[in-house]
Automatic annotation (TrEMBL):
<dbReference type="GO" id="GO:0004386">
    <property type="term" value="F:helicase activity"/>
</dbReference>
<feature type="region of interest" description="Disordered">
    <location>
        <begin position="25"/>
        <end position="44"/>
    </location>
</feature>
<dbReference type="Pfam" id="PF19306">
    <property type="entry name" value="WHD_Lhr"/>
</dbReference>
<dbReference type="InterPro" id="IPR052511">
    <property type="entry name" value="ATP-dep_Helicase"/>
</dbReference>
<dbReference type="InterPro" id="IPR013701">
    <property type="entry name" value="Lhr-like_DEAD/DEAH_assoc"/>
</dbReference>
<feature type="compositionally biased region" description="Basic and acidic residues">
    <location>
        <begin position="589"/>
        <end position="601"/>
    </location>
</feature>
<dbReference type="InterPro" id="IPR001650">
    <property type="entry name" value="Helicase_C-like"/>
</dbReference>
<dbReference type="InterPro" id="IPR014001">
    <property type="entry name" value="Helicase_ATP-bd"/>
</dbReference>
<dbReference type="InterPro" id="IPR045628">
    <property type="entry name" value="Lhr_WH_dom"/>
</dbReference>
<dbReference type="GO" id="GO:0005524">
    <property type="term" value="F:ATP binding"/>
</dbReference>
<dbReference type="InterPro" id="IPR017170">
    <property type="entry name" value="Lhr-like"/>
</dbReference>
<dbReference type="Pfam" id="PF00270">
    <property type="entry name" value="DEAD"/>
</dbReference>
<dbReference type="Pfam" id="PF08494">
    <property type="entry name" value="DEAD_assoc"/>
</dbReference>
<dbReference type="GO" id="GO:0140097">
    <property type="term" value="F:catalytic activity, acting on DNA"/>
</dbReference>
<feature type="domain" description="Helicase C-terminal">
    <location>
        <begin position="258"/>
        <end position="403"/>
    </location>
</feature>
<dbReference type="Pfam" id="PF00271">
    <property type="entry name" value="Helicase_C"/>
</dbReference>
<feature type="region of interest" description="Disordered">
    <location>
        <begin position="577"/>
        <end position="602"/>
    </location>
</feature>
Length: 965
């Protein structure tokens, strides 16, 4: 550091009070870090500020030193002087430990308050408030309800919001934004300080923090201190030998070996994965290999998480396998390397995760991304390059969420008792995410709350008042996190809680006898207790156990990342074709003009180019380029959409990211379904929309719809398509709860309400409007989808077709498979599927005389079922609970739904009549209807095991695409 830098640093510290400077000297801090040097001047002047700096660069002290300095110079008060708000309780614990020394040294009391704080401690804080309170957004809401606490909050002079990027993109943050305006009603203006390691749009996040007011942004380059390598491990003879031991294939064995090598060559490693299922599957295989690793994710019990955190921090464990549960800086000691298994999907996520490594000053954070297939490698390369450039995605704020408005109106009444509707409106709309909420929308929300008895409304007097229902509503809805049941997983032998399973997983998959992995161990389900919300399990050592299909959306790949992959594909394909394309020409134009697309550079030469542009190695680059080398025809890149079709399979290859592809996929499914009167199967990734078309539709229809659908109609068509989607119905129940329309006793869940009845009852309410808004916000991108159609129709985006499958299009199917459950399942899995199907029950019903039906186990069904009453072989095999189908068949007059049921039953009977018990087995599988059963049965096979493998493949496909059928 130069003399000038030292002087500047000393000048930054010189702005602090004498007690704080003395404490700094005692602590051994002679010069500030870069964020401290730049942020202390405005913060000590009392300005609002957003501080963006890498993890471990002293952000907490950057925020708190000026706050502690101000408190140390101020006359003592009775109330809280500063609030430190964090999104996780575990961060509260860390912050208290980090701030306790400063508090003791400066005689400033620091305490923590959250949902687990004891009643005794709460009472103590009410009677004698600490100077600094570390808390969560939800607990701040609850503090407005106590008279003593409101008086204590009136003294607040500073609010620090940690991990502000995380809150800005969530409804919890929207709730906090209004909560801070509520706080202003008691405390007046106060200093606001936001902290984050990654923010893509500092100006917007600053406005979120300050309610649109001035905000000093102090940003330290997060990409310059990050060193990330993208690696696809090469399969070795050792991996081939290990595959059997690890119950997987050699490719996954190579991934396990590489992670093990990285753990053994570093002192402390975090291994991030994108899903809990991957954490469990990969973690169990690493443990089998002897890797010194623990597993950490949100579905494990709190005790289990704290245990592995402590063991890792003490050095007992060398590595932690974790999901986003470790993203937000929970203190687990020094980390010297981060492994990311598969693409992190977002730039912000990579920086947040790799930033956990290297907590010492001036130390580069190092990380390795282990990729698994070409899409994964290209995506990881693009993200790593964007990360090093510091090019982060903007926060995706919830703007104008009406259930948050409803929640906070009740929150205001809990603090103030009564106020005019216009006063409440002004407080709510001061918060930046709600600045565009109209008076009309606000009044509709108030009326809805009144009709649900959550408040008293005197409409003539423009007054709203607290009622008994307000209390009940408010304490049932402190959090904006949706209230979805988690079933406890209990080991019946020991009585201990193993972890939790989400309600949707339990409803759809958790059947007695099923085997899954949790905590790195295998468990067999004994039974599901609906009343107690428990899944009772017993430990097993069964290699047939499959990784559970955890509920939780895939991390969406943003449009800009997908476009980056498109550009990389295009540049690489141009080189493989005939050298670098002329400026201004697309790769496809270059390939067409060249005639032979394979007259360009060799794969090795293009791989060397790739390694010079992106942080990867020759083997990884060449492996990814093999996809392009196998591809024939125009390449789908940033400027080209390729529609390929073969039979009823259609793939729209489009580098548009998850949300835009989801939007276009839903649009095409809805229009094709309307055209044919049948369901359209759909599967989406950031680079493809895969459709399975019913009879009466073709790939040419898909091309026609993309070229002719009016972009202005996209939003309306999408909203119409949502009315039958489970995603909207489930969201509707969650939002209705936040409006007080469904009470806690009717907590939303697939078995707890009539979803269609609920939809009809709420259609013209703000509840319905908010549910639609949230589905559009979280899952879709209507604006981008409309823009894509405009660009296709103007010729700005090239749309080409191909009447056969391509290498790029086919790679989507393999990418959808869970790597840790290989497509060629081992014999034990096949045996498990065979045994389950034979033990399952089916409802047999005669469609000839229509007078006989019986439920029995599949293994007891005759090789050629026939009706004992009339002797007919026209017998349908149905789900054992499908009584309504039998009733529909027997009905003399049928509605539209009953007609569909009857048609499906006759198709089932036709299969059973032609193929006997084999058809019954296929129809007994989960989600395998007559159409898929026919596909399975009609395949020519030499081995019976292949029949069960095909059933397993269809079941997995159904599990992934269930919400679209």
């Amino acid at each position: 550091m130069s003399d000038g830098d030292v002087a500047a640093g000393m000048d930054a510290f010189s702005r602090l009070s004498q007690p704080v400077r003395d404490a700094l000297s005692e602590r051994g801090f002679t010069t500030p870090t870069e964020p401290q040097r730049r942020a202390l001047p405005p913060l000590t002047r009392g300005q609002d500020a957003l501080v963006i700096a890498p993890t471990g660069s002293g952000k907490t002290e950057t925020a708190m030193l000026p706050v502690l300095s101000a408190i140390s110079e101020r006359e003592p008060t009775h109330g809280f002087q500063a609030l430190y708000v964090t999104p996780l309780r575990a961060l509260n614990r860390d912050m208290r430990e980090r701030l306790e020394w400063w508090g003791e040294t400066l005689d400033i009391e620091v305490d923590v308050r959250h949902g687990d704080t004891t009643d005794y401690q709460r009472q103590k804080q009410s009677n004698d408030p600490p100077d600094v309170l570390v808390t969560t957004p939800e607990t701040l809401q609850a503090m407005f309800t106590g008279e003593k606490l409101r008086r204590a909050l009136a003294d607040v002079e500073h609010v620090v919001v940690d991990e502000v990027h995380e809150l800005a993109a969530a409804k919890r943050g929207a709730q906090l934004a209004i909560g801070l305006e509520h706080l202003r009603e008691y405390a007046g203006s106060f200093q606001r300080i936001g902290l984050s390691a990654t923010v893509g749009d500092p100006g917007e996040v600053g406005k979120f923090l300050t309610a649109g007011g001035p905000c000093e942004v102090v940003e330290v380059d997060v990409g310059s201190d990050v060193d990330v390598r993208v690696v696809e491990p090469e399969v070795t003879a050792e991996d081939e030998r290990a595959a059997g031991q690890l119950l997987t294939d050699a490719t996954v064995a190579s991934h396990v070996r590489k992670i093990d090598e990285l753990v053994r060559t570093h002192e402390s490693v975090l291994v991030f994965v994108n899903t809990r299922q991957t954490a469990e599957g990969l973690g169990s295989r690493l443990k089998e290999l002897g890797t010194d690793i623990g597993i950490h994710h949100g579905s494990l019990s709190k005790e289990a998480r704290i245990d592995v955190e402590d063991r890792f921090k003490s050095g007992e464990l060398s590595a932690l396998m974790c999901t986003s549960s470790m993203e937000l800086g929970i203190d687990v000691g020094r980390i010297d390397h981060v492994v990311q298994y598969q693409s992190p999907r977002e730039v912000a996520r990579l920086l947040q995760r790799v930033g956990r490594a290297g907590h010492r000053r001036d130390e580069t954070s190092s990380g390795t991304i282990i990729t698994t297939r070409p899409d994964d490698t290209f995506e990881a390369c693009v993200i790593a390059a964007l990360a090093e450039a510091g090019d982060v995605e903007p926060a995706d704020m919830h703007l104008g969420s009406l259930d948050t408005v409803a929640n906070q109106i009740c929150g205001l009444l809990m603090g103030m008792g009564e106020l005019s509707a216009m006063e409440a409106y002004e407080i709510v709309t001061r918060a930046y995410p709600f600045r565009h909420v109209t008076e009309q929308q606000f009044r509709e929300v108030v009326r809805e709350l009144s009709s649900n008895r959550c408040l008293w409304l005197e409409e003539d007097a423009d007054r709203i008042e607290k009622s008994r229902g307000t209390w009940q509503y408010f304490y049932s809805n402190l959090s904006m996190i949706p209230d979805e049941a988690n079933y406890e997983v209990k080991d019946v032998a020991s009585g201990r809680t193993v972890g939790t399973l989400a309600e949707r997983f339990v409803v759809n998959f958790a059947m007695p006898g099923e085997v899954f992995i949790q905590g790195g161990e295998m468990w067999r389900i004994n039974n599901v207790d609906e009343e107690e919300e428990e899944v009772n399990v017993a430990p097993v050592e069964d290699p047939g156990g499959e990784v559970p299909s955890w509920v939780g959306q895939e991390i969406p790949v943003p449009y800009d990342v997908a476009q980056g992959v498109g550009r990389l594909r295009g540049d690489a394909m141009a080189r493989l074709g005939e050298g670098t394309r002329p400026e201004g020409a697309s790769p496809n134009e270059r390939a067409e003009s060249a005639g032979d697309p394979r007259t360009g550079e060799s794969v090795d030469t293009v791989a060397r180019w790739l390694t010079s542009e992106y942080p990867t190695d020759g083997h990884t680059a060449a492996s990814a380029l093999s996809q392009l080398e196998r591809h024939e025809g125009p390449v789908p890149d940033a400027d080209t959409i390729l529609v390929e079709f073969y039979g009823r399979e259609v793939v729209v290859n489009a580098c548009l990211g998850h949300k835009a592809n989801e939007t276009l996929g839903r649009l095409l499914s809805a229009l094709l379904g309307q055209q044919t009167g049948a369901s359209v199967g759909m599967e989406v990734d950031p680079y493809r929309i895969e459709l399975e078309l019913p009879r009466g539709a073709s790939g040419n229809d898909v091309v026609r719809l993309l070229r002719e659908t009016d972009p202005a109609h996209v939003e309306g068509l999408i909203e119409l398509s949502l009315k039958n989607a489970d995603a909207l119905k489930f969201k509707l129940a969650q939002v209705a709860t936040k409006f007080g329309a469904l009470k806690d006793t009717n907590r939303p869940g697939p078995r707890r309400f009539g979803k269609n009845r609920l939809l009809e009852a709420l259609r013209d309410t703000p509840i319905y409007d908010e549910a639609v808004r949230e589905v559009l916000h979280e899952d879709l991108d209507v604006d981008r989808g409309s823009d894509v159609l405009r660009r296709i129709q103007s010729g700005d985006l090239e749309l080409v077709r191909r009447n056969e499958r391509t290498a790029i299009g086919l790679d989507g199917r393999s990418s959808g498979q869970e790597l840790l459950s290989p497509e060629n399942a081992d014999q034990s899995v096949i045996d498990t599927v065979r045994e389950r199907l034979h033990e399952d029950r089916v409802l047999l019903a005669c469609l000839h005389c229509k007078e006989w039906d019986r439920t029995q186990q599949v293994k007891r069904v005759a090789e050629q079922p026939e009706c004992p009453k009339c002797g007919s072989t026209q017998v349908a095999a149905l789900n054992p609970w499908a009584d309504e189908v039998v009733q529909a068949v027997r009905a003399s007059e049928k509605d539209e739904e009953q007609e569909k049921m009857t048609e499906r039953a006759y198709r089932s009977a036709s299969l059973v009549q032609s193929h006997g018990k084999q058809a019954v087995l296929a129809l007994a599988a989960r989600g395998v209807g007559p159409h898929n059963a026919a596909q399975i049965i009609n395949k020519l096979r030499e081995d019976e095991d292949l029949f069960y493998r095909d059933i397993l493949t269809k079941e997995r496909q159904y599990a992934r695409t269930k919400s679209f059928w």
